[in-house]
Amino acid sequence: MANRKEMSDFLAAVERRAFVQTVYAVRREEIALDIVQDAMIKLVERYHDRPPAELPPLFQSILKTTTTDHFRRETVRNRWTTLLSALGPDDGSEDGARDVLEAIESEPGSPQAESAADQVERSQTMALIEAEVKRLPARQREAFMMRYWEDMTLAETAVAMGCSEGSVKTHCSRANHALATALKARGISL
């Protein structure tokens, strides 16, 4: 059973990584902050009686579910907002009609505002990057993912990998070089 200090220490340790991970998913910092806070509250309310070793996977599961719930709510909200605004009061135009396309315009910079070609290109590029990351040697991939995906510090990564900070730097440098070379060969410049 995690005591208050253990729970507090866990939440403090995971907060930054969870925030970065969620910003990457939802693309808006204020929404990501709300999602992370909701996930932390759910963990404390529902699982305060669990041992500290069980907290990391529970929290990741809660965070993922909370993020998915956000996207579901947004989809429903956008659908109803679009329908209601298209049927709403007169906008002052000569014929009293509203332009439905204007009503459903997405916020600039959001994934919905991208053209279909941009979305396809971005997803293809991400698939290529993921394929190249999978091809990295295990230690390089491990260091790369911890440092750049999970946003762990150099010291945290070294402890997690059971090696020195210098080794982590070497693994990350080699991974970066290998990825840059492989992606450049495929026509992708980062």
Layout of helices and strands:
Blueprint: H1 4-26, H2 29-47, H3 55-87, H4 100-103, H5 116-135, H6 138-149, H7 154-161, H8 165-185
Helix pairs in contact: 1-2, 1-3, 2-3, 5-8, 6-7, 6-8, 7-8
Q: Could you give the count of β-strands?
A: 0
Tally of alpha and pi helices: 8
**Fraction in helix:** over 70%
Structural class label: mainly alpha
Q: Which shape, going by the Cα principal axes?
A: flat
Tell me the fraction of residues in β-strands, as a range.
under 5%
Low-confidence stretches: 96-101
Could you walk me through the main structural features you see in this protein, from its secondary elements to its overall organization?
It contains 8 helices and no strands. The N and C termini lie far apart (46 Å). Helix 5 packs across helix 8. The radius of gyration is 22 Å and the shape is flat. 74% of the residues lie in helices and 0% in strands. The longest helix has 33 residues. About 3% of the residues have low confidence. It is an all-alpha fold and 190 residues long. 14% of the residues are buried.
